[in-house]
Protein backbone atom coordinates (compact mmCIF):
# COMPACT_ATOMS: atom_id res chain seq x y z
CA UNK A 1 0.00 0.00 0.00
CA UNK A 2 1.49 3.39 -0.91
CA UNK A 3 0.46 6.59 0.80
CA UNK A 4 1.87 10.05 1.36
CA UNK A 5 3.57 10.60 4.72
CA UNK A 6 1.48 13.49 5.95
CA UNK A 7 2.25 13.62 9.66
CA UNK A 8 4.95 12.72 12.12
CA UNK A 9 5.06 12.38 15.88
CA UNK A 10 7.35 10.93 18.52
CA UNK A 11 5.11 8.09 19.65
CA UNK A 12 2.26 6.67 17.61
CA UNK A 13 -0.30 4.71 19.62
CA UNK A 14 -2.43 2.24 17.67
CA UNK A 15 -5.68 1.46 19.48
CA UNK A 16 -8.10 3.31 21.68
CA UNK A 17 -8.79 1.07 24.69
CA UNK A 18 -7.37 0.98 28.20
CA UNK A 19 -3.84 -0.12 27.25
CA UNK A 20 -3.60 2.49 24.49
CA UNK A 21 -4.75 5.36 26.69
CA UNK A 22 -2.49 4.33 29.59
CA UNK A 23 0.40 4.34 27.11
CA UNK A 24 -0.63 7.65 25.54
CA UNK A 25 -1.00 9.51 28.86
CA UNK A 26 2.32 8.17 30.13
CA UNK A 27 4.28 8.93 26.94
CA UNK A 28 2.90 12.46 26.59
CA UNK A 29 3.67 13.24 30.24
CA UNK A 30 7.22 11.98 29.66
CA UNK A 31 7.61 14.78 27.10
CA UNK A 32 6.91 12.91 23.84
CA UNK A 33 4.59 14.20 21.13
CA UNK A 34 1.94 11.50 20.96
CA UNK A 35 -0.76 10.63 18.42
CA UNK A 36 -3.52 8.03 18.85
CA UNK A 37 -5.31 6.25 16.00
CA UNK A 38 -8.53 4.46 16.94
CA UNK A 39 -10.50 2.53 14.31
CA UNK A 40 -13.84 2.98 16.04
CA UNK A 41 -15.95 6.13 15.73
CA UNK A 42 -15.92 8.40 18.79
CA UNK A 43 -19.19 6.95 20.18
CA UNK A 44 -17.72 3.42 20.15
CA UNK A 45 -14.20 4.33 21.27
CA UNK A 46 -12.57 2.35 24.02
CA UNK A 47 -12.63 -1.18 22.59
CA UNK A 48 -13.52 -3.97 24.99
CA UNK A 49 -12.26 -1.80 27.84
CA UNK A 50 -15.47 0.21 27.70
CA UNK A 51 -17.43 -2.93 28.63
CA UNK A 52 -15.44 -3.67 31.78
CA UNK A 53 -16.39 -3.19 35.42
CA UNK A 54 -13.45 -4.05 37.63
CA UNK A 55 -9.71 -4.35 37.90
CA UNK A 56 -7.56 -6.60 40.09
CA UNK A 57 -4.63 -5.00 41.89
CA UNK A 58 -2.06 -5.52 44.62
CA UNK A 59 -2.83 -3.81 47.93
CA UNK A 60 -1.73 -4.14 51.52
CA UNK A 61 -4.93 -3.16 53.31
CA UNK A 62 -8.60 -2.30 52.90
CA UNK A 63 -9.32 1.10 51.38
CA UNK A 64 -12.61 2.88 50.80
CA UNK A 65 -13.00 0.74 47.67
CA UNK A 66 -11.79 -2.76 48.61
CA UNK A 67 -12.60 -4.70 51.77
CA UNK A 68 -9.20 -6.17 52.68
CA UNK A 69 -5.59 -6.82 51.65
CA UNK A 70 -4.52 -8.68 48.53
CA UNK A 71 -0.83 -9.50 48.98
CA UNK A 72 1.62 -10.56 46.27
CA UNK A 73 1.78 -14.20 47.41
CA UNK A 74 -1.97 -14.70 47.16
CA UNK A 75 -2.19 -12.82 43.85
CA UNK A 76 0.58 -15.01 42.42
CA UNK A 77 -1.07 -18.20 43.75
CA UNK A 78 -4.40 -17.24 42.17
CA UNK A 79 -2.71 -16.60 38.84
CA UNK A 80 -0.68 -19.83 38.98
CA UNK A 81 -3.82 -21.82 39.74
CA UNK A 82 -5.87 -20.51 36.79
CA UNK A 83 -3.00 -20.71 34.32
CA UNK A 84 -1.74 -24.08 35.56
CA UNK A 85 1.60 -22.20 35.91
CA UNK A 86 1.67 -21.62 32.12
CA UNK A 87 2.81 -18.04 32.41
CA UNK A 88 5.97 -16.01 32.01
CA UNK A 89 6.66 -15.63 35.71
CA UNK A 90 8.95 -12.62 35.28
CA UNK A 91 6.31 -10.65 33.37
CA UNK A 92 3.47 -11.90 35.56
CA UNK A 93 5.21 -10.78 38.75
CA UNK A 94 6.03 -7.45 37.10
CA UNK A 95 2.33 -6.91 36.38
CA UNK A 96 1.38 -7.89 39.93
CA UNK A 97 3.93 -5.56 41.54
CA UNK A 98 3.32 -2.60 39.24
CA UNK A 99 -0.43 -2.86 39.76
CA UNK A 100 0.02 -1.52 43.31
CA UNK A 101 -0.44 2.15 42.37
CA UNK A 102 -3.34 1.64 39.94
CA UNK A 103 -5.95 2.86 42.43
CA UNK A 104 -4.24 6.23 42.82
CA UNK A 105 -2.97 6.50 39.22
CA UNK A 106 -6.44 6.05 37.76
CA UNK A 107 -7.94 8.43 40.35
CA UNK A 108 -5.40 11.06 39.34
CA UNK A 109 -6.53 10.57 35.74
CA UNK A 110 -10.19 11.16 36.53
CA UNK A 111 -11.46 7.60 37.16
CA UNK A 112 -13.88 7.29 40.07
CA UNK A 113 -14.04 4.05 42.07
CA UNK A 114 -17.16 2.57 43.57
CA UNK A 115 -17.59 1.56 47.21
CA UNK A 116 -17.77 -2.24 47.71
CA UNK A 117 -21.21 -3.64 46.92
CA UNK A 118 -22.98 -6.97 47.26
CA UNK A 119 -23.29 -9.16 44.18
CA UNK A 120 -19.78 -8.61 42.86
CA UNK A 121 -18.81 -12.28 42.53
CA UNK A 122 -16.48 -12.51 45.56
CA UNK A 123 -14.36 -9.68 44.17
CA UNK A 124 -14.88 -6.89 46.70
CA UNK A 125 -11.60 -7.63 48.47
CA UNK A 126 -9.36 -8.11 45.44
CA UNK A 127 -10.82 -5.86 42.72
CA UNK A 128 -11.64 -2.20 42.31
CA UNK A 129 -14.95 -1.43 40.60
CA UNK A 130 -15.25 1.61 38.35
CA UNK A 131 -18.11 3.97 39.15
CA UNK A 132 -20.01 4.06 35.86
CA UNK A 133 -18.10 1.01 34.57
CA UNK A 134 -15.50 0.85 31.83
CA UNK A 135 -17.23 3.46 29.70
CA UNK A 136 -16.82 6.06 32.45
CA UNK A 137 -13.19 4.99 32.92
CA UNK A 138 -12.47 5.35 29.21
CA UNK A 139 -14.24 8.73 29.10
CA UNK A 140 -12.03 9.88 31.99
CA UNK A 141 -8.86 8.76 30.18
CA UNK A 142 -9.95 10.42 26.92
CA UNK A 143 -10.68 13.59 28.83
CA UNK A 144 -7.23 13.45 30.44
CA UNK A 145 -5.74 12.97 26.94
CA UNK A 146 -7.67 15.99 25.66
CA UNK A 147 -6.35 18.12 28.53
CA UNK A 148 -2.80 17.02 27.70
CA UNK A 149 -3.35 17.97 24.04
CA UNK A 150 -3.03 14.44 22.60
CA UNK A 151 -4.66 14.28 19.14
CA UNK A 152 -7.00 11.32 18.66
CA UNK A 153 -7.83 10.23 15.11
CA UNK A 154 -11.16 8.34 15.25
CA UNK A 155 -12.47 6.02 12.54
CA UNK A 156 -8.83 5.64 11.57
CA UNK A 157 -7.58 2.12 11.17
CA UNK A 158 -3.88 1.30 11.04
CA UNK A 159 -3.55 -1.03 8.06
CA UNK A 160 0.15 -1.53 7.61
CA UNK A 161 3.38 -1.08 9.57
CA UNK A 162 6.47 -0.04 7.63
CA UNK A 163 9.77 -1.27 9.02
CA UNK A 164 13.36 -1.07 7.85
CA UNK A 165 15.92 -3.53 9.30
CA UNK A 166 13.45 -4.40 12.04
CA UNK A 167 12.92 -0.76 12.99
CA UNK A 168 9.51 0.90 12.78
CA UNK A 169 9.32 3.87 10.38
CA UNK A 170 5.65 4.60 9.80
CA UNK A 171 2.10 3.29 9.76
CA UNK A 172 -0.30 3.43 6.86
CA UNK A 173 -3.72 4.37 8.19
CA UNK A 174 -7.10 4.60 6.54
CA UNK A 175 -10.10 6.79 7.28
CA UNK A 176 -12.97 6.09 4.91
CA UNK A 177 -11.52 6.29 1.40
CA UNK A 178 -8.51 8.35 2.52
CA UNK A 179 -5.17 6.65 3.14
CA UNK A 180 -2.24 8.43 4.75
CA UNK A 181 1.04 7.59 6.40
CA UNK A 182 2.12 8.61 9.88
CA UNK A 183 5.82 8.54 10.70
CA UNK A 184 6.94 8.12 14.32
CA UNK A 185 10.11 7.44 16.30
CA UNK A 186 8.36 4.61 18.12
CA UNK A 187 5.04 2.82 18.00
CA UNK A 188 2.88 1.19 20.67
CA UNK A 189 0.52 -1.49 19.40
CA UNK A 190 -2.44 -1.67 21.77
CA UNK A 191 -5.04 -2.77 19.25
CA UNK A 192 -6.63 -5.64 21.17
CA UNK A 193 -7.04 -9.18 19.86
CA UNK A 194 -8.67 -10.69 16.75
CA UNK A 195 -11.83 -12.00 18.37
CA UNK A 196 -14.15 -10.00 16.07
CA UNK A 197 -12.52 -11.32 12.89
CA UNK A 198 -14.81 -14.25 12.04
CA UNK A 199 -12.86 -15.38 8.92
CA UNK A 200 -9.67 -15.56 11.00
CA UNK A 201 -11.48 -17.45 13.79
CA UNK A 202 -12.72 -19.91 11.18
CA UNK A 203 -9.10 -20.86 10.43
CA UNK A 204 -8.94 -22.39 13.91
CA UNK A 205 -12.59 -23.22 14.70
CA UNK A 206 -14.06 -24.02 11.28
CA UNK A 207 -17.70 -23.20 10.55
CA UNK A 208 -18.46 -23.16 14.30
CA UNK A 209 -17.04 -19.61 14.37
CA UNK A 210 -20.09 -18.38 12.40
CA UNK A 211 -22.20 -19.11 15.49
CA UNK A 212 -20.00 -17.20 17.94
CA UNK A 213 -21.46 -14.12 19.57
CA UNK A 214 -18.79 -11.52 20.31
CA UNK A 215 -19.82 -9.53 23.35
CA UNK A 216 -17.01 -7.03 22.77
CA UNK A 217 -16.17 -4.49 20.09
CA UNK A 218 -16.42 -5.33 16.40
CA UNK A 219 -13.30 -3.23 15.73
CA UNK A 220 -10.79 -5.74 17.14
CA UNK A 221 -9.98 -7.34 13.80
CA UNK A 222 -6.40 -8.32 14.63
CA UNK A 223 -4.89 -6.46 11.69
CA UNK A 224 -1.97 -5.18 13.76
CA UNK A 225 -1.37 -8.60 15.30
CA UNK A 226 -1.18 -10.05 11.79
CA UNK A 227 1.19 -7.26 10.70
CA UNK A 228 3.52 -7.87 13.65
CA UNK A 229 3.55 -11.61 13.01
CA UNK A 230 4.23 -11.06 9.32
CA UNK A 231 7.14 -8.79 10.22
CA UNK A 232 8.64 -11.62 12.25
CA UNK A 233 7.34 -11.05 15.78
CA UNK A 234 7.49 -14.16 17.92
CA UNK A 235 3.97 -15.48 18.57
CA UNK A 236 2.80 -16.45 22.02
CA UNK A 237 -0.28 -18.34 23.19
CA UNK A 238 -2.75 -20.68 21.57
CA UNK A 239 -4.96 -19.30 18.77
CA UNK A 240 -7.84 -21.47 20.03
CA UNK A 241 -7.13 -20.47 23.61
CA UNK A 242 -9.75 -17.91 24.47
CA UNK A 243 -11.09 -16.08 27.44
CA UNK A 244 -14.69 -16.51 26.44
CA UNK A 245 -17.68 -16.53 28.74
CA UNK A 246 -21.12 -18.10 28.42
CA UNK A 247 -23.38 -15.46 26.92
CA UNK A 248 -27.09 -15.29 26.37
CA UNK A 249 -27.85 -16.76 22.93
CA UNK A 250 -30.47 -14.06 22.50
CA UNK A 251 -27.76 -11.34 22.55
CA UNK A 252 -26.55 -9.36 19.50
CA UNK A 253 -23.69 -10.55 17.28
CA UNK A 254 -21.32 -7.83 18.62
CA UNK A 255 -21.08 -5.48 21.59
CA UNK A 256 -23.68 -7.15 23.86
CA UNK A 257 -21.34 -6.30 26.73
CA UNK A 258 -21.55 -7.43 30.33
CA UNK A 259 -25.35 -7.67 30.53
CA UNK A 260 -25.49 -10.70 28.24
CA UNK A 261 -23.15 -12.77 30.42
CA UNK A 262 -24.72 -15.84 32.07
CA UNK A 263 -23.64 -16.20 35.69
CA UNK A 264 -26.13 -18.96 36.53
CA UNK A 265 -23.82 -21.87 35.58
CA UNK A 266 -22.42 -22.77 39.05
CA UNK A 267 -25.93 -22.59 40.55
CA UNK A 268 -27.36 -25.34 38.38
CA UNK A 269 -26.35 -27.47 35.45
CA UNK A 270 -25.43 -26.74 31.85
CA UNK A 271 -26.50 -29.08 29.06
CA UNK A 272 -25.85 -29.06 25.34
CA UNK A 273 -28.38 -29.37 22.50
CA UNK A 274 -28.54 -33.12 23.16
CA UNK A 275 -29.37 -32.51 26.84
CA UNK A 276 -25.99 -33.82 27.95
CA UNK A 277 -23.86 -32.16 30.61
CA UNK A 278 -20.33 -31.60 29.36
CA UNK A 279 -18.28 -30.02 32.16
CA UNK A 280 -18.16 -29.70 35.93
CA UNK A 281 -20.22 -26.58 36.67
CA UNK A 282 -18.86 -26.34 40.23
CA UNK A 283 -15.18 -26.93 39.59
CA UNK A 284 -13.92 -23.74 41.27
CA UNK A 285 -15.10 -20.31 42.36
CA UNK A 286 -16.88 -18.56 39.50
CA UNK A 287 -14.34 -15.70 38.99
CA UNK A 288 -11.73 -18.36 38.26
CA UNK A 289 -13.92 -20.40 35.92
CA UNK A 290 -16.43 -18.18 34.10
CA UNK A 291 -14.02 -17.38 31.26
CA UNK A 292 -13.64 -21.03 30.20
CA UNK A 293 -17.34 -21.55 29.50
CA UNK A 294 -17.40 -19.77 26.14
CA UNK A 295 -14.68 -22.13 24.88
CA UNK A 296 -16.50 -25.17 26.29
CA UNK A 297 -19.74 -24.17 24.57
CA UNK A 298 -17.87 -23.42 21.33
CA UNK A 299 -16.98 -27.13 21.25
CA UNK A 300 -20.63 -28.27 21.59
CA UNK A 301 -22.99 -28.97 18.65
CA UNK A 302 -24.33 -25.71 17.17
CA UNK A 303 -22.26 -23.84 19.77
CA UNK A 304 -25.21 -23.64 22.12
CA UNK A 305 -25.88 -24.73 25.69
CA UNK A 306 -28.63 -24.25 28.23
CA UNK A 307 -28.06 -23.18 31.83
CA UNK A 308 -30.78 -24.77 33.97
CA UNK A 309 -31.46 -23.63 37.52
CA UNK A 310 -34.02 -24.32 40.19
CA UNK A 311 -36.27 -21.40 41.23
CA UNK A 312 -34.55 -21.43 44.67
CA UNK A 313 -31.42 -19.94 43.10
CA UNK A 314 -33.11 -16.89 41.56
CA UNK A 315 -31.72 -13.71 43.11
CA UNK A 316 -28.38 -15.34 44.01
CA UNK A 317 -26.57 -14.45 40.78
CA UNK A 318 -26.48 -11.47 38.44
CA UNK A 319 -29.20 -12.16 35.86
CA UNK A 320 -28.88 -11.73 32.11
CA UNK A 321 -30.63 -8.72 30.60
CA UNK A 322 -33.03 -11.21 28.96
CA UNK A 323 -35.64 -12.80 31.25
CA UNK A 324 -35.26 -16.51 32.01
CA UNK A 325 -37.46 -19.04 30.22
CA UNK A 326 -39.49 -20.63 33.02
CA UNK A 327 -41.66 -23.74 33.38
CA UNK A 328 -43.36 -25.73 36.13
CA UNK A 329 -41.80 -29.05 35.09
CA UNK A 330 -38.60 -30.20 33.43
CA UNK A 331 -40.47 -31.70 30.48
CA UNK A 332 -42.35 -28.45 29.93
CA UNK A 333 -39.09 -26.49 30.15
CA UNK A 334 -37.55 -28.79 27.52
CA UNK A 335 -40.46 -28.12 25.17
CA UNK A 336 -40.06 -24.35 25.64
CA UNK A 337 -36.33 -24.64 24.90
CA UNK A 338 -37.04 -26.95 21.93
CA UNK A 339 -35.05 -29.75 23.54
CA UNK A 340 -36.00 -33.41 23.67
CA UNK A 341 -38.12 -33.67 26.89
CA UNK A 342 -37.23 -37.32 27.62
CA UNK A 343 -33.51 -36.63 27.33
CA UNK A 344 -33.60 -33.56 29.58
CA UNK A 345 -35.73 -35.31 32.20
CA UNK A 346 -33.30 -38.26 32.20
CA UNK A 347 -30.23 -36.01 32.61
CA UNK A 348 -31.79 -34.03 35.44
CA UNK A 349 -33.12 -37.15 37.19
CA UNK A 350 -29.69 -38.72 37.03
CA UNK A 351 -28.10 -35.54 38.32
CA UNK A 352 -30.58 -35.21 41.19
CA UNK A 353 -30.12 -38.84 42.22
CA UNK A 354 -26.36 -38.38 42.46
CA UNK A 355 -26.52 -35.27 44.67
CA UNK A 356 -25.26 -35.86 48.21
CA UNK A 357 -26.71 -33.80 51.06
CA UNK A 358 -24.69 -30.77 52.16
CA UNK A 359 -24.87 -27.15 53.29
CA UNK A 360 -24.93 -24.85 50.25
CA UNK A 361 -22.45 -21.95 50.56
CA UNK A 362 -21.11 -20.04 47.54
CA UNK A 363 -18.43 -18.26 49.58
CA UNK A 364 -16.38 -21.45 50.14
CA UNK A 365 -15.86 -24.91 48.64
CA UNK A 366 -18.99 -26.38 50.27
CA UNK A 367 -19.96 -30.03 50.69
CA UNK A 368 -22.82 -29.97 48.15
CA UNK A 369 -21.62 -32.32 45.47
CA UNK A 370 -22.50 -35.25 43.28
CA UNK A 371 -21.23 -38.78 43.51
CA UNK A 372 -20.72 -41.23 40.64
CA UNK A 373 -21.47 -38.69 37.92
CA UNK A 374 -19.34 -37.84 34.88
CA UNK A 375 -18.61 -34.99 34.51
CA UNK A 376 -18.74 -34.43 38.26
CA UNK A 377 -20.06 -31.25 39.70
CA UNK A 378 -17.40 -30.63 42.38
CA UNK A 379 -9.65 -13.38 26.36
CA UNK A 380 -8.43 -15.49 22.18
CA UNK A 381 -5.00 -15.70 23.55
CA UNK A 382 -2.79 -15.53 20.43
CA UNK A 383 -0.45 -12.59 20.70
CA UNK A 384 3.11 -11.37 20.38
CA UNK A 385 5.97 -11.99 22.78
CA UNK A 386 7.22 -8.98 24.72
CA UNK A 387 9.99 -8.37 27.22
CA UNK A 388 9.78 -6.48 30.52
CA UNK A 389 10.17 -3.17 28.65
CA UNK A 390 7.11 -4.05 26.52
CA UNK A 391 9.31 -4.35 23.42
CA UNK A 392 8.03 -6.82 20.86
CA UNK A 393 10.40 -9.79 20.68
CA UNK A 394 11.21 -11.07 17.20
CA UNK A 395 11.70 -14.67 16.08
CA UNK A 396 15.48 -14.41 16.57
CA UNK A 397 14.67 -13.61 20.24
CA UNK A 398 15.92 -10.05 19.88
CA UNK A 399 13.60 -7.19 20.89
CA UNK A 400 12.49 -4.72 18.20
CA UNK A 401 14.09 -1.40 19.11
CA UNK A 402 11.09 0.88 18.76
CA UNK A 403 8.04 -1.40 18.58
CA UNK A 404 6.13 -1.85 21.81
CA UNK A 405 2.94 -3.77 22.60
CA UNK A 406 0.42 -3.55 25.43
CA UNK A 407 -2.91 -5.04 26.43
CA UNK A 408 -4.74 -7.96 24.90
CA UNK A 409 -2.25 -8.19 22.01
CA UNK A 410 0.46 -9.38 24.47
CA UNK A 411 -1.68 -10.78 27.32
CA UNK A 412 -0.88 -14.32 26.13
CA UNK A 413 2.61 -13.92 27.66
CA UNK A 414 0.95 -14.03 31.04
CA UNK A 415 -2.40 -15.76 30.47
CA UNK A 416 -1.59 -18.61 28.12
CA UNK A 417 -4.61 -20.35 29.50
CA UNK A 418 -7.16 -19.64 32.19
CA UNK A 419 -8.38 -16.23 33.26
CA UNK A 420 -8.64 -14.30 36.48
CA UNK A 421 -11.49 -11.79 36.75
CA UNK A 422 -10.28 -8.21 36.42
CA UNK A 423 -6.78 -9.19 35.28
CA UNK A 424 -7.15 -8.18 31.62
CA UNK A 425 -7.25 -4.54 32.64
CA UNK A 426 -4.35 -5.03 35.08
CA UNK A 427 -2.13 -6.35 32.29
CA UNK A 428 -3.21 -3.53 29.96
CA UNK A 429 -2.75 -0.79 32.55
CA UNK A 430 0.67 -1.96 33.69
CA UNK A 431 2.02 -2.77 30.23
CA UNK A 432 0.35 0.31 28.72
CA UNK A 433 2.26 2.50 31.14
CA UNK A 434 5.51 0.61 30.60
CA UNK A 435 5.09 0.79 26.80
CA UNK A 436 4.31 4.52 26.97
CA UNK A 437 7.33 5.20 29.17
CA UNK A 438 9.73 3.11 27.07
CA UNK A 439 8.39 4.36 23.72
CA UNK A 440 8.84 7.95 24.91
CA UNK A 441 12.33 7.20 26.26
CA UNK A 442 13.34 5.76 22.88
CA UNK A 443 11.81 8.66 20.95
CA UNK A 444 13.40 11.35 23.12
CA UNK A 445 16.70 9.56 23.67
C1 LIG B 1 -18.02 -7.60 27.88
C2 LIG B 1 -16.63 -7.65 28.44
C3 LIG B 1 -16.44 -7.40 29.79
C4 LIG B 1 -15.16 -7.45 30.33
N1 LIG B 1 -15.00 -7.15 31.66
C5 LIG B 1 -13.76 -7.07 32.17
C6 LIG B 1 -13.56 -6.59 33.50
O1 LIG B 1 -14.49 -6.23 34.22
N2 LIG B 1 -12.27 -6.50 33.95
C7 LIG B 1 -11.19 -6.84 33.18
O2 LIG B 1 -10.04 -6.73 33.63
N3 LIG B 1 -11.34 -7.28 31.91
C8 LIG B 1 -12.59 -7.39 31.39
N4 LIG B 1 -12.76 -7.78 30.09
C9 LIG B 1 -11.54 -8.00 29.28
C10 LIG B 1 -10.99 -6.59 28.91
O3 LIG B 1 -11.98 -5.91 28.22
C11 LIG B 1 -9.72 -6.63 28.10
O4 LIG B 1 -8.75 -7.43 28.73
C12 LIG B 1 -9.14 -5.22 27.97
O5 LIG B 1 -10.14 -4.28 27.76
C13 LIG B 1 -8.16 -5.17 26.84
O6 LIG B 1 -7.72 -3.84 26.67
P1 LIG B 1 -6.95 -3.43 25.38
O7 LIG B 1 -6.66 -1.98 25.51
O8 LIG B 1 -5.84 -4.37 25.12
O9 LIG B 1 -8.00 -3.70 24.18
P2 LIG B 1 -9.37 -2.99 23.83
O10 LIG B 1 -9.93 -2.26 24.99
O11 LIG B 1 -10.25 -3.99 23.17
O12 LIG B 1 -8.93 -1.88 22.78
C14 LIG B 1 -8.48 -2.21 21.50
C15 LIG B 1 -8.64 -0.97 20.67
O13 LIG B 1 -7.92 -1.08 19.47
C16 LIG B 1 -8.69 -0.53 18.41
N5 LIG B 1 -8.16 -1.11 17.18
C17 LIG B 1 -8.16 -2.41 16.81
N6 LIG B 1 -7.50 -2.55 15.64
C18 LIG B 1 -7.07 -1.31 15.28
C19 LIG B 1 -6.33 -0.81 14.17
N7 LIG B 1 -5.88 -1.63 13.20
N8 LIG B 1 -6.09 0.53 14.10
C20 LIG B 1 -6.55 1.36 15.06
N9 LIG B 1 -7.24 0.93 16.15
C21 LIG B 1 -7.48 -0.39 16.25
C22 LIG B 1 -10.11 -0.89 18.77
O14 LIG B 1 -11.05 -0.05 18.14
C23 LIG B 1 -10.09 -0.68 20.28
O15 LIG B 1 -10.33 0.65 20.62
C24 LIG B 1 -14.05 -7.77 29.51
C25 LIG B 1 -14.23 -8.01 28.14
C26 LIG B 1 -15.51 -7.95 27.61
C27 LIG B 1 -15.69 -8.21 26.15
Bound molecules: flavin-adenine dinucleotide
Low-pLDDT stretches: none
What is the CATH topology of the largest domain? Answer: FAD/NAD(P)-binding domain
Beta-strand fraction estimate:
15-25%
Shape: globular
Number of strands: 16
Helix content: 25-40%
Intertermini distance: 31 Å
Largest sheet: 8 strands, mixed
How much is the average pLDDT?
91
Integer-rounded radius of gyration: 23 Å
Quickly count the helices.
11
Number of structurally distinct domains:
2
Q: Note the run of SSEs as H and E.
A: EHEEHHHEHEEEEHHEEHEHHEEEEEH
User: What's the CATH H-level superfamily name of the largest domain?
Assistant: FAD/NAD(P)-binding domain
Q: CATH top level of the largest domain?
A: Alpha Beta
Which structural category do the helix and sheet elements fall into?
Answer: alpha/beta
